[in-house]
Design brief:
The chain is mostly beta strands and 228 residues long. Helices cover 8% and strands 36% of the residues. The protein contains 1 helix and 17 strands. The N and C termini lie far apart (47 Å).
């Protein structure tokens, strides 16, 4: 018996006993795990995964947008390199470097500009439209980052092992999408449908067929498509 089925046995026995006694059992939190690999079968890190509930399905939790998220600037790099947020989120861009930065984006979902500054000279920016926002510094061309704004609270990013887990999904039907800045737009895999049932964790395996650009390495200059 595999480990995933073994982990469900105590819950199944409890549910059976409760049913015999006429009692109810609180639904077990359900998770969706994505395993992402490249065309050679190797794990791919920093792939954004998000699940969008079908209309009328699932009940999303209320999101608190009162506190801004943070994309810092340290050692002439944006940290984190990829930030996933829900539509309506605010993000602050503090400059922790000893040199000034000029942060901007020309991306259609959110064009903004924070003129030359250090510290926290500018207020947070609100990201009110879904999409991918590429962020740069007008002074240091090697600085780049990506903000992925999604219309769902269910999202995660893959780690070094290529795995991303979205926890506490309500039962319902979802469309799962992925995004990676290492892929051209046309090379992203098609969305996948998945049905989530309380107590049944789901696993999706995705193999990327498109050619991946080299990974972002903080200690080196950022890489551009024009070089490949």
């Amino acid at each position: 018996m595999d480990d995933s089925r073994r982990s469900l046995l105590p819950y199944a026995r409890l549910a059976a006993l409760a049913a015999c006694a006429g009692l109810s059992v609180e639904a077990r939190p359900t998770s969706l795990t994505m395993v992402v690999s490249d065309r050679n079968g190797l794990a791919v890190e920093e792939v954004v995964v998000y699940a969008v509930a079908a209309e009328g399905d699932a009940s999303a939790p209320v999101t608190d947008f009162s506190e801004p998220l943070v994309m810092n600037q340290q050692f002439e790099q944006f940290k984190p390199h990829i930030l996933i947020v829900q539509t309506g989120s605010m993000i602050s861009f503090p400059n922790g470097d000893t040199v000034a930065h000029h942060v901007y984006s020309f991306s259609e979902p959110k064009r903004f500009e924070l003129p030359l500054y250090q510290g926290t000279a500018h207020p947070p920016v609100t990201f009110d439209r879904p999409g991918v926002i590429d962020v740069g510094c007008n002074i240091h061309d090697h600085m780049e980052a990506h903000i992925v704004v999604v219309d769902t609270p269910y999202f995660a990013a893959t780690g070094a092992d290529g795995r991303a887990e979205i926890s506490d999904l309500p039962s319902g039907n979802y469309t799962v999408r992925i995004y990676s800045p290492r892929l051209r737009a046309a090379d992203h895999p098609a969305p996948q449908g998945v049905a989530i049932t309380n107590g049944d964790d789901a696993i999706l395996q995705i193999q990327l067929e498109g050619r991946l650009r080299p990974p972002h390495l903080p200690e080196t200059e950022s890489l551009n498509w024009s070089r490949y």
